[in-house]
Amino acid sequence: MEVLRSIPELGDLPGPLFTAIGVFDGVHLGHQAVISTSARHAQEAGGTPVVVTFDPHPAKVLRPEKAPRLITATQHKIALIRDLGVAHLLVVTFDREFANTPPEDFVRQLVRHSNPLREICVGHEWSFGKNRAGNLALLQSLGAENQFNVVGIQPVAVNGTVVSSTAIRRAVETGDFAQAAEMLGREYTILGTVKRGAQLGRQLGFPTANLSAHSEQFPPNGVYAAEARLGVETFRGVANLGVRPTVSGDKPERLLELHLFDLNREIYGEDVEVRFTRYLRAEQKFESLDALKAQITRDVAEARTLL
Q1: Per the domain annotation, does 228 fall within a domain?
Q2: Number of domains in the chain
């Protein structure tokens, strides 16, 4: 997949262009409907489909104090969009300057740099531009003025519930992975980068990888049977999410740690995608490191059986 980083780069693609535009946090079933519709229309017309998204999430810039945990940070989102078979992705930098761009100017930039722009496909209620003044009606007006079509995709519902990033975030936060998976169209995962820790797990006989997640939504604290994907390899193991009350001291920090079975190499700096397969137990404080080690031994045995 070719990743573009500026709107003028659209001029390098063969037209006509069919764009699917959105924040796409989670790349859930509703987002997939927007992307797949645009791709289908492009194929039917012999055009080039392009997915357009933004980095960082607009809320991180406009309302940083109220910005939600992401379902998929940009790095994860790009990987998921690639998995959909998308050939071209434009990631627009969302900063204060871009946030102040009138919606008409944003669309006219797309028109100016496309050869030509044939279609814009968005979610039915998508808003954009300065003060979120842009909407489907404005897009349709600009489309009539600039000779491109506009498609608004209606919300997707699963079992009577409208699929949304907010609903998925709520499901993950409560540990309802089944509901999250239904709305995502895949299992919920977290993408993170392995960082160096205190290596306490290694001292206990269970080396762990400390994961620096990219601002993604965590499920409830606890111990989970898990699977982790490193590149093309998949490893089974145990994930501990929480503040490690037995060893954290006076400054507890919420961490995601992985003990992966049969992994015999260092993975510092590598990206790992984690799937929580089964909740094993709540996080708890132990009287000693020996008691903690004994419980980890039981957790590993249970996870091996389940997995």
Answers
A1: yes
A2: 2
Model's pTM, two decimal places?
0.89
Spatial separation of the C-alpha atoms in residues 81 and 94, rounded to whole Å = 19
Domain with 256 in it: 188-306
Rounded-to-integer distance, Cα 154 and Cα 94, Å: 25
- Residue 272's H or E segment, with its range, is strand 271-281
The CATH number of the domain holding residue 31 is 3.40.50.620
State yes or no: pLDDT of 61 exceeds 80.
yes
Q: Count how many Cα atoms sit within 13 Å of the Cα of residue 163 in the half-sphere of its side chain.
A: 27
Query: How far is 32 from 289, CA to CA, in rounded Å?
Result: 47
- How far is 1 from 82, CA to CA, in rounded Å? 6
Q: How far apart are CA 91 and CA 79, in angstroms?
A: 13
Phi, psi of 162 (to 5 degrees): -70, 130
Which CATH number does the domain housing residue 199 bear? 2.40.30.30
Same domain, yes or no, for 101 and 224? Answer: no
Q: What gap in Å lies between CA 242 and CA 253, rounded to an integer?
A: 8
State the chain's mean pLDDT as an integer.
92
Q: What integer pLDDT is reported at residue 213 of this predicted model?
A: 78
